[in-house]
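Entry 0007
Protein: MYPN protein
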Amino acid sequence: EAVQERFFRPYFLQAPGDMVAHEGRLCRLDCKVSGLPTPDLTWLLNGKPVLPDGRHKMLVRETGVHSLLIDPLSQNDAGTYTCLATNKTGQNSFSLELTVVAKEVQKAPMFLEKLQNCGVPEGYPVRLECRVVGMPPPIFYWKKDNETIPSNRERMSMHQDTTGYVCLLIQPAKKADAGWYTLSAKNEAGIVSCTARLDIYAQWHRQIPQPIKLRPGISRYANLTGQGLDIFSAFPTTESPMLFSSPTQKVVESEEL
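Output (structure tokens):
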């Protein structure tokens, strides 16, 4: 008796669902199909055939798993993928949506505002400030005279925000804090640094006498006397009768005086 040949329409035993993949990486779409004779597979992107090239490859493993490999993935690869399995008895298909996450743009750190040389009186707070941008956001390292400043150092605290503002706060400042300070900003794309000098002044530098203000309508001598000065005894003037008197002369009274 003649052997009757049997045929089976293609049927997907394994098929991927909607996917999210990252730009610049490998993307793999796997499926497994049955059918007799063995079906031929065709991949479509938004209704147009996906042809093998430098970035797109179609593979079949011994286990019967078919794979579409895209490497590296680009934004143009996003869309609706359809896989058609066809043999002489008919065809079957499945579809999925591939979303491509944009590759993170990398930019080396860059100073918008650098550290500035500064000086403060001893005992006052001081801020060493600058502004740095970069993608991904950089990590910051502070040094004093080429020695790393630990984050828990007494009287020193490090601050930053999402705008790129970076600050080293010293409160209160002491003479030992004087020196050269360096800030380094580092991310995956690069590293930059800037340096500035901090000077700490002795306390007497800020003991500047205030100017004496005269009150209108009142004698300048009264103003000085109000400051605790005996101006008449210290600086005799024409108002003092002793200025022109002599021990050997008598004071002459006159109506003109």
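Curator remark: DSSP finds two helices and 18 strands in the chain. The first helix runs from residue 220 to 226.
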